[in-house]
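Lecture 7, part B: from sequences to assemblies.

Below are the input chains for today's worked example.
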Amino acid sequence: MSTRTLPLLFINLGGEMLYILDQRLRAQNIPADKAKKVMNDIITTMFNKKFLEELFKPQELYSKKALRTVFDRLAHASIMRLNQASMDKLYDLMTMAFKYQVLLCPRPKDILLVSFNHMDAIRDFVKDTPSILSQVDETNKQLVEIYTPLSGGEFQLIRQTLLIFFQDMHIRVSIFLKDKVQNSNGRFVLPTSGPVPYGTHTPGLIRMFSCSGEEVRRMQFRDGGNYCGALREGSFEMYGDRVIKLGTNMYSVSRPVETHMSGTSKNSSQHTKVNTTPNPLAKEELNLLARLMGGLEVQKSANTDSGFRVNLFATDEEEETNRPMQSWLRSWGSLERWENLPPVPAARVTTSWP
Amino acid sequence: MSKMYHKEKSIQLKSSASALYNNLSVLRIAPRCLTYFTVVHANVVNMVSASWDGLNYSHRQLQSKEGNVATSSSLIMQAAWCVLPSRDLLVLTSQKGIQMYESDGSIMVYWHALDTPETPTAKAVFARGIAAVREKYICVGVSSGSVLVFDVPSKGSNITLSEVLEEHKEAITDMASECSGNLECIADLVSADDSGLLCVWKSGEDFQLLNKIPGFDTSCSSVKLWKGTVIAGYGTGQIRLYEGVTGILLAEVNAHARWIYSLDIAPFTGLLISAAEDSWVRVWHLSLTPETNSVEIEHMYNECVTDTQICGARFCDGDGYAFAVTGYDLSEIIRYTQA
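Predicted structure of the full complex, as structure tokens:
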């Protein structure tokens, strides 16, 4: 569908990945200089000029498999090492977070504001490193140039393309369940309350006109929701108040760390089906971006110790840096798995998510 | 106050509905006491045939045609039945072109390939917007803004492209033909695009443009034409009613809090159904007074499909006695009938 979707998908997923890694690095008390190096290395790779040139070319969305490979390579573009299970969980969390943001965007165009939220945060991660900062700024400029002229309809096409990519993914995420933005069946809560999108009127008014254009009748109907007027529009410039909170970092330092992932919802036949049909071009797409990503040299300092492991999704108390593999696996096994829970009726209107 | 409609047993689908405009089509086959439904999932169309006694369901899946190059799967934008006096055809519009099948999906009778560029361009290429017009035309919209008019014989596969209408500059979103059955109506077809522009046409050997009703900076995602009145649903959640030939605005409703995805009319009663990303399905009643060229629109009913962004809503019969709804990521067709 839309040939302009891939850059937004990549940048937003990348942004979520950085939020999670940043939080885990801090939670596991990785020394600040090492943590910073990990973040800088990944961000440098993410915004590599040649890579982005390829990314921004009009093209169809990658398959799930191909995109996953790109992120596998990106996650390993530093001295940090993630095992397969951690990588799986990281990717699941990234994708469910962005799916949530796409679904809850008030207007399709707000996906760009969500992207800017991610970019603003990434800029903040590297604000002390001018060389990387300029790469990020360059990309931000490109986003503004390419996307701000697009119409609402074109953004809706981008959104629809993204929603097809995320179709049937219902992985339950603790942080979402806790915040009651996701139901226990893995589906997100869509509030019927709160501010309407910018440019939309609150439902209720019916106006009828005569042939000469005069309003002859005005009526109200009960819309059943609890909507209020739109917030002001967020800024689409390089810098500015985005207003929308979707796409900002939801992993604050003080949050409880229990982020164990659960299995898919009971209706497993609806789980993400990876397209396995033989596709000569799939090998191509898998290689091009992934090759560009994997081929990038990461500057390693002369006195580098061997890469350290970051363990994702285990509680603070159970983790310390450089834990041997066996105990890590043991701790992982002790976490509760949410498999095949009986379906619970989805909650009605709960809280509105800013 | 008793509810106007109540929920019936849902129909299960083989795969979930994709977030596409007007993603539900219904064909009522009275002689066989069957209703057919289609719902698009990415590159597949799910067809379900449901017997009226609720006892028999059968499923079929149609794939989009790839064209002759092994590129990434062509996504389907829309599937809809076209009811012509002599035959019913099922039309699929995708990124590669337009497929037409016999109404039960058993045989493909026609394929029209779109001009897809070698390397992808910034503007996507696809077909979207389907309408059967008068006795023998099927009109299909294209992302360039063109409307393709196909001439359909009463049987066989000798379908030909008769005309290309070039009035829209933005991608066609939806199209609708006059559904009141009144042959005296001048306007036969309305086409809508991403800028909100509505074009009203009279069919014939050469289609004639009767009017261009400008948009207001927002996409019109769903459109209907009933007794010469254009009913349009917009991305802002508004529904507007225009007199088709003159373009006069008759009514404006702040109907939904999010993008409208689907509108349908029950031609015998003037019931209108609207559905949007805001989870609400709303039923309205339209009454037209031709003498004063005015319209009355009255709100009748609300249904909230919890935690669902609705992508399709259709009446299952000409009176609006029953309606069906699809939602993004939902693997069922939810049905309601009047209490």
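Note for the exam: Residues 6-188+242-310 of chain A form one domain. Keep this in mind when comparing with the next example.
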